[in-house]
Design brief:
The complex is a heterodimer of chains A (563) and B (194). Chain A is α+β, with helices and mostly antiparallel strands and 563 residues long. Helix content of chain A is 53%, strand content 17%. The longest helix of chain B has 27 residues, at 78-104. The relative contact order of chain B is 0.12. The chains are: A alpha+beta (563), B mainly alpha (194).
Chain lengths: 563, 194
């Protein structure tokens, strides 16, 4: 181990995070190297000075102000809700201090459930306010869907439900962390929450075990019907209860709870088909609920993934996909820490994309919702990163939408959307790409990534643009590299002149020159045949470079002259 | 060795407070605010280098953390989780300000970063020893500054810092080493100039 390694690993050594062999090597080195010991002592002194130099806020009202803001925000949330507004008015005359203490921390503590509307048809209101996809839901806010409408929601505690209204409006209210009150309509609910979910209605209650998928229906005063598709539930009324197992149905009304059908009942063909379709739908819903959960806990997962093998995944990512995007992004993410923000997202997207692929169109709808519903930037970024990995024409509409939506966190979402569209069948999206590429005041990353798609179909101006970008030393290195990667990815013979120059440019790195010569082979550039052959036979050049030259020669000539 | 390496009781205490907050006692959150406000401030100031801006982001951080308290996983340190939120908000702020400058070419907001304070928190302007350290810190690249701040103002381990910044622990160790070395050089320059 050399001095530099010892010094650079020393902080990990102090944290006891080095493997035994490395730890012993550090210790052995320090035992014999006085210079390193001296350096470490000096660094320790600096560390001590830093430790003693911490700043303080020095404002006694800071914490008070934080708590005040929290209360204010919660109050605003409550004020717009049905119950909250009532309490608010009621207590408005009370002393101000009491008001803060009582009103602003109402029944939201351990008993609250929060969530978001995922999809919607027809009109819906929450606490009387019209809501849209992406609107938030909270405990104590009655949710209402107009006749014929339907909405789906995911709650933060793992409960996902769909509320459908037939000829009268459907109404449900999350009343506590584990309770829903169904006033009318049909409720299909999946609970992945670790505790049982209770659904109340004036005619009786149902209690769903964790992991249960069930459908509950209320029609006026006729009763509450429960069909358990998976898992187990209990129907309860007036101290009596029956257990409804998977595949069974039950009813609770004035006559108390009872089972109305069981696995023994023979379904007709049509019923069987409906049941099969419903089962399929249910499985999709469950899966969707799981995915929603994952979106909810994205942040934590992202960091975990990074800690595990983020750097590795980045490598994989960079090689597997011609990531002009990532490279171009580096311009915005100038520090490693900021780049870190993107890398774990990519790692996460790689992980999630196979599951979304299985989910098919529903998965794409879900991601499209995330993009169009004003979700936090990080989620939208994740959605668009996943979409570009699905490699199906079905992702074109959501990617197009993403390309047009300005994002507060910068142009990231749009850059990735452009890269995603460019990687698809570029013919069908060329007009969109052209629009972005030709917009001169457009973000440079978006322009590069749009140009890739056009370059892939041999578009002259796009290839020229990328070539010029690379040649212009005035651009940041990341932009130039992005342009070069884009050209490599486009793999068009029109770009060959640039790569011929790179091959013979001794100032360039061997890696770059190797990539350039491979490119010339891939596009079967006859004009470079002589040069390629000379390099293939040159014992002076690096072996990897020579091998690449030999392979290129074989490709250009269509022979296997070099084996 | 960072001295404030926190004993496990501190972590247990934080988890206890978090569970009180979750189970209906939001006022308990005030204890976490008081406990971490100065460390959060020191770390975020090292990124933002502007007192008002740092105060604003510190408040936003505590507010965000409160709203997301149900997502906090107690197997991790509360402080790491909190600082991660703060650091992300700060980087986003910096990025947004840069973007605004690019888009609108109005540099009013941007000049707030590091503007007029030469990288020293106003409360330390009169404390010579500390002021010198912060002035030297301000000359370091951002990734060194941030890693050093977390290491020494909160005593975080490299792997926690790595987790917050989204880099590997090795990178953190290297950045801390290089940061200290640069800092040493700047402090020496300063001593000579005096």
């Amino acid at each position: 181990m050399e001095c530099r390694d010892v010094l650079e690993l020393h902080e990990l050594y102090l944290d006891r995070e080095l493997e035994a062999t490395q730890r012993l090597a550090v210790e052995a080195h320090l035992g014999v190297c006085a210079l390193c010991r001296q350096e470490i002592e000096a660094a320790r002194a600096i560390g001590r000075r830093l430790q003693e130099s911490g700043a303080s806020i020095d404002d006694p009202s800071f914490s008070v102000e934080v708590l005040r803001r929290i209360r204010r925000e919660r109050a605003a949330g409550r004020k717009s809700s049905r119950i909250g507004a009532g309490v608010w008015t009621h207590l408005a005359t009370a002393a101000a201090a009491t008001l803060l203490a009582v009103v602003l921390w109402p029944s939201r503590g351990p008993e609250s459930m929060e969530g978001v509307i995922r999809s919607l048809s027809g009109e819906a209101r929450s606490a009387g306010q019209v809501i849209q996809i992406g609107s938030e839901l909270r405990t104590g806010e009655l949710l209402e869907v107009t006749p014929g409408g339907r909405l789906a929601a995911s709650m933060s505690n793992g409960i996902a439900f769909e509320l459908a209204a037939n000829d009268e409006s459907a109404r449900v209210e999350p009343t506590a962390i584990d309770r829903l009150r169904l006033e009318s309509g049909t409720l299909t609910v999946t609970s992945l929450s670790p505790t049982a979910l209770r659904v109340d209605s004036p005619l009786g209650q149902a209690e769903l075990e964790p992991g249960t998928l069930a459908r509950l229906e209320r029609h006026g005063n006729a009763g509450l019907k429960l069909a358990v598709h998976e898992g187990r539930a209990r129907l309860m009324h007036g101290g009596r209860e029956v257990v409804i197992e998977s595949g069974q149905e039950g009813l609770v009304g004035t006559a108390g709870p009872r089972r109305v059908s069981g696995p023994a009942a023979q379904p007709s063909d049509a019923e069987e088909r409906i049941a099969a379709l419903e089962l399929e739908l249910r499985q999709l819903r469950r899966f969707e609920a799981t995915l929603q959960q994952e979106l909810f806990s994205t942040r934590k997962q992202l960091r975990d993934a990074l800690a595990e093998n983020g750097a590795l995944l980045v490598q994989v990512e960079r090689q597997a996909v011609p990531e002009s995007t990532v490279v171009a992004l580096m311009d915005d993410f100038t520090t490693s820490a900021e780049a870190g923000f993107l890398y774990p997202l990519i790692a996460e997207a790689v992980k999630l994309s196979s599951r979304f692929r299985e989910l098919g169109p529903r998965g794409i709808d879900l991601l499209a919702d995330v993009i169009s519903s004003g979700s936090p930037s990080e989620e939208r970024l994740l959605a668009v990163l996943i979409l570009r990995r699905l490699e199906t024409p079905a992702v074109i509409p959501p990617l197009q939408a993403a390309l047009m939506i300005p994002d507060e966190a910068g142009d990231m979402v749009r850059r990735i959307a452009a890269a995603g569209l460019s990687a698809l069948d570029a013919e069908s999206v060329s007009s969109v790409l052209r629009g972005r590429f030709e917009a001169e005041n457009e973000d440079i990353g978006v322009r590069i990534n749009s140009a890739v798609g056009l370059a892939r179909i041999g578009d002259g101006p796009a290839i020229d643009f990328l070539t010029k970008l690379y040649r212009d030393d005035g651009h940041p290195e990341s932009i130039r590299e992005g342009a070069l990667e884009a050209l490599l990815f486009a793999n068009r013979p029109e770009a060959a002149p640039l790569f011929r120059e790179l091959v013979i440019d001794a100032d360039e790195s061997v890696e770059l020159r190797t990539a350039a010569i491979s490119f010339l082979g891939d596009v079967r550039d006859q004009a470079s045949l002589e040069m390629v052959q000379r390099l293939a036979d040159d014992p002076e050049v690096e072996e990897a470079f020579r091998t690449a030259a030999q392979r290129a020669y074989n490709r250009i000539t269509g022979t296997d002259f070099y084996r | 060795m960072p001295a404030q390496q926190k004993p496990s009781e501190t972590a247990a205490e934080d988890v206890q407070i978090v569970s009180e907050v979750r189970t209906g006692d939001p006022e308990a959150y005030g204890r976490l605010v008081v406990k971490y406000q100065d460390r959060l401030y020191s770390i975020l100031y090292s990124i933002l280098r502007n007192h008002d801006l740092t105060l604003e982001i510190c408040q936003d951080t505590f507010l965000r953390a409160f709203k997301a308290i149900h997502l906090y996983d107690p197997t991790y340190k509360f402080s790491s989780w909190l600082f991660r939120i703060g650091v992300n908000l700060s980087f986003n702020k910096v990025k947004r300000l840069k973007l605004e400058r690019r888009v609108t070419d109005r540099s009013v907001e941007v000049t707030r970063i590091g503007g007029g304070e030469s990288g020293v928190p106003p409360t330390l302007q009169t404390q010579e020893t500390k002021r010198v350290v912060w002035e030297a810190m301000a000359k370091l690249p951002e990734n060194y500054r941030t890693a050093l701040a977390m290491r020494y103002f909160d005593g975080l381990a490299c792997k926690d810092i790595a987790d917050i910044l989204g880099v590997t622990p090795n990178v953190v160790s290297i950045n801390i080493h290089r940061g200290k070395k640069l800092l040493q050089r700047h402090l020496k320059d300063y001593a000579i100039k005096r």
